[in-house]
Amino acid sequence: MSKTQKKQTHSITPLADNVLLTKIEQRTESLVGIILPDSVDSERGLNLGKVIAVGDGANIEGALIPSKLKKGDTVLFGWGESFAFEGVEYILIKESQILARVSK
How many folded domains does the chain comprise? Predict the structure, then answer.
């Protein structure tokens, strides 16, 4: 690649009320001090994720309800659609499937 060529990067923009996450690896104690039992695992239990991007919001009866999340938020969720894009693992999930926002 010459100096005049720029490396082309792509971005993912969720539509509607979808949220793009990256998974945060689980520890035995959560970010806010909640001790997670051994029975909770990432396949069937709760997961921590970091919000990478959010859609515009939900369209309910013709009215746009903006997302309550923003880029950088840490959230607790059960499951979502996992995929890899340009070597990074992502999760795409409806905002209504996110259970909580985690604060420090």
Answer: 1
Q: Using an 8 Å Cβ cutoff, are 57 and 16 in contact?
A: yes
Beta bridge partners, 48, equal 24, 76
- Find where tokens 């659609």 sit: 81
Q: Structural domain of residue 69, as residue ranges?
A: 18-27+40-102
Answer whether residue 84 is part of any domain. yes
Per residue in 60-99, pLDDT (tens digit) is 999 999 999 999 999 999 989 999 999 999 999 999 999 9
Query: What does DSSP assign to residue 35?
Result: B
Q: 4 with 52: CB under 8 angstroms?
A: no
Strands 74-77 and 98-102: antiparallel
